Amino acid sequence: MKLKISCLQMDIAFGDPNKNYQLAERLIEKSLDNRPNVIVLPELWTTGYDLTRLNEIADDYALQTIEFLQKAAKKYQVHFVGGSVANREKNGVKNTLLIINKEGKLVHKYSKLHLFKLMDEHLYLEAGSQKGLFEIENNKFAGSICYDIRFPEWIRAHSAEGAEALFVVAEWPAPRLSHWRALLIARAIENQCYVIACNRSGQDPNNHFAGHSMIIDPWGEVIAEAGNNQEILTAEIEMDLVKEIRSQIPIFTDRKPEYYK
What we know:
Helix content is 28%, strand content 29%. By secondary structure, the chain is an alpha/beta fold.
């Protein structure tokens, strides 16, 4: 089965949800020229890293963003890996990834497990606790958020349960671009899965972001890679390739998890 993926590498407006919804709408409409099956947005795309104001500008239970994505999904008949948003719940604000299918159904929510202390996330966000597994078109996928990719055991927990592609949404800073590329390629190779990674571009008052959204095949070959600026990155993936590679080098049957303690 083939899926065409478009990653919206946005230059997010710092702390301005209304402006970001408008930008996302324009980029979604522009991406339709490529006829994607799945559209991916970056991390915290409605607010950016305006952490000190998150409690004011966060989306209550992500309802506004869910409605925005549901409307677009049904209108354009595309699936959304809807990036992550500042999601205000009873016990605090979480960094939550949203999966909406083309019928407009909320398929899954995943809140970031690993909070990045270097950017003070732990001071303003509550960590999630659930896995990022979900299904689209009868294929099993996983979602993760930015810093999560530095934890290979967390990604393996998803591929070991059958995930054949990993979607990564991020606001990865430019000074660590080499880490971004190396980690994503490694996660693809060691899990024998596609990696679809949507980063943001541009800068905020404290950070300059790397861009370089990437789509990587299960051999670790980069199919498509964006530059530094705002752009739409599109490529087609062939899901049957995952099964083919996993049968050639059967790492999942050769694992010995009883020793990995």
